[in-house]
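Regression test case RT-17, inverse folding.

Input:
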């Protein structure tokens, strides 16, 4: 890390904001990095123990170094944000939380970069507040809906839900070993950190299962509305994604007129981590042209 970016640590960039959701007042955590004129908001996935910082640890510094302000939002039910039971659309709930954050920070327009659930949430936000979105980057997510090629729920989603129900190192290994294409990249330190994050807030785990019981389809199918999206969109997918199949990316490409799709071979559900250098160059080129 270069000297001018020594302050890019989770602790030093950690912030909180109060956001009203219905009758509740939620304390929401985010990280605020850099001070560029343009802002990129990164939105994490739904795995147990996920956070913005953990999801995008290999992507923050290159964007800040290129002159962007980078904000990592932790959705309610993850990391240091308050917990919540989602009885409706999780995508739309997260979009409302994102709206509360950008309003609180007085950001009139932001670029959105969403992974998995974060992609679903970015699409939900864009459909509701299109004027607040510059460019859109969707990775391994963007809409729910069945796949004609893969039984649903997918192998990965079954393991994810199993980890929520029975959190422990064995179930974590089972999930992470198909999360990425090459599990030899996964270190014991990564497993320990992720398990610590999972066990740090049992309420998050319990409320995720309660949410699934209340509404098994937390992430709606936006296919019929994708044509409404006018923002230029970069869709990024791992060819070997076993959580959200690649044909979902093709549906996004077909539905969003101003979109392009980049598929990474030898890559699972975590493009931004598995192929970080190439991903960072791709995103920076997309944002700057």
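Golden output:
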């Amino acid at each position: 890390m270069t000297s001018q970016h020594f302050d890019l640590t989770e602790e030093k960039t950690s912030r909180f904001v109060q956001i009203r959701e219905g009758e509740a007042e939620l304390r929401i955590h985010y990280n605020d990095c850099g001070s560029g004129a343009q802002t990129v908001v990164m939105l994490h996935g739904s795995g147990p123990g996920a956070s913005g910082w953990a999801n995008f640890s290999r992507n923050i510094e290159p964007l800040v170094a290129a002159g962007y302000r980078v904000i990592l939002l932790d959705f309610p039910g993850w990391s240091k944000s308050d917990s919540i039971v989602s009885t409706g659309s999780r995508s739309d709930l997260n979009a409302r939380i994102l709206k509360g954050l950008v309003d609180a920070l007085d950001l009139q327009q932001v670029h959105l970069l969403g992974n998995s659930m974060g992609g679903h949430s970015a699409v939900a936000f864009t459909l509701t507040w299109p004027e607040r979105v510059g460019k859109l980057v969707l990775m391994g997510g963007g809409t729910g809906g069945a796949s004609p090629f893969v039984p649903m729920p997918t192998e990965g989603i079954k393991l994810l839900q199993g980890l929520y129900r029975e959190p422990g190192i064995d179930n974590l290994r089972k999930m992470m070993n198909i999360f990425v294409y090459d599990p030899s990249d996964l270190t014991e330190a990564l497993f320990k950190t992720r398990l610590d994050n999972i066990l740090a807030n049992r309420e998050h785990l319990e409320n995720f299962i309660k949410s699934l019981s209340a509404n098994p389809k937390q992430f709606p199918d936006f296919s019929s509305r994708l044509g409404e999206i006018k923002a230029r969109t970069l869709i990024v997918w791992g060819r070997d994604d076993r959580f959200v199949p690649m044909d979902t990316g093709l549906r996004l490409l077909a539905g969003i007129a101003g979109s392009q799709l980049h598929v990474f071979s030898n890559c699972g559900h975590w493009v931004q981590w598995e192929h970080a250098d190439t991903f960072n160059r791709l995103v920076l080129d997309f944002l700057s042209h």
